[in-house]
Amino acid sequence: MTQETSRTLMSYCPDIKVLDCTLRDGGLVNNFRFDDKFVKDLYQANIKAGVDYMEFGYKASKEIFDVKEFGKWKFCDEEDIRAIVGENNSDLKISVMSDVGRTDYKKDILERKDSVIDLVRTATYIHQIPTAVEMIEDAKAKGYETAVNVMAVSKVNDEDLDAGLELLAKSAVDVIYLVDSFGAFYPEQIERLADKYLNIAAKYNKQIGIHAHNNQQLAFANTIQALRQGVSYLDATVGGMGRGAGNCFLESLLAFLKNPKYNLMPIMKFVEKDMLKLKEEGAVWGYDIPYLLTGVLNSHPSSAIKFIKEERTDYHQFYQELLEIE
Fold first, then answer.
1. Is residue 58 one of the residues assigned to a domain?
2. Helix-strand-coil percent breakdown of the chain, rounded to 5?
3. What is the CATH number of the domain that holds 243?
4. Is pLDDT above 80 for 2?
């Protein structure tokens, strides 16, 4: 455990930053087809709840993705964000995600002075880190706060992870995220990995974040464990909304945190007013046995998503299929 991490479950941690990625990760559930009322309600709820960042979605390339197939938050055009937030005269900061290889970042990410966006996050796999560094440097040069999410680290060996983290830490990035893409990690593993990330962060004066998935119903537990180790940027979504098993519940996180700036009540009102309607309209996510099995076996959730869409219930056969793949 690093020097700043003598945290207990009752510690007051003023350095904590909560990032709501309901629209971005949750957008993978409904192809980003959130109506403006939902987005405005979420924006206002986050402001009232004291949430630090709200991620509006991806900065995806319109050359790669058909705009007819997705809602506007797949692309996060400046005018669409401004239609919700105006000049964003609040303490809440605006975030977007840029995927390596899927973003025309030089063209679509404007100069910070021309944008209401505050934070640009880059999502990368370990082998893409050199390109991610280039994207990070571009965003930093334009004036943004920067973060990087290194995906699928449960599939990466220690040597490659150490080398990748060293490259990122030497870049202009502000925050490096530990991401449990497949919901495969247990708190003990998060403890070890968080220490690895925090040690390199201390060396280069960076911050560390956690983005946890809920395949084994451990997203909240793993987020708390990372927090206890000294991780300060915490991702969550309302209702845990996200692809497949979803994410750490924002409600759980705000209820747990002892910082008096956070207020759970506005999120409870948003759930009652907007999230229940979303589920009634057919949006489906959250823990289920197929996601448990992919999490246990450290597998991508796509096979579990297909299993559920096909309305299969032969869990033993699905488990056998996964074991044969592994």
1. yes
2. 50, 15, 35
3. 3.20.20.70
4. no
